[in-house]
Amino acid sequence: MIDDLRRWGWWDCTTEVLSAYAKAKSKLAKSTILRYALSSPNAECATFIAATRKTEPDLVAKAEALLKLLK
Q: How far apart are CA 6 and CA 65, in angstroms?
């Protein structure tokens, strides 16, 4: 569902989507949330990506690479 929100550019759910990251148990779920945040023009997402890049740089890099392929 988060990928659909990203594709549709529906940023109204940003707070809920980002809060799901801490609860996500799989790398796939985390990657989906990261792609949403990377695509969003929202400042909250930019802050989230900057913080996550410090703690999980490889996962952010993989999400960025996959996002490039999807475009």
A: 16
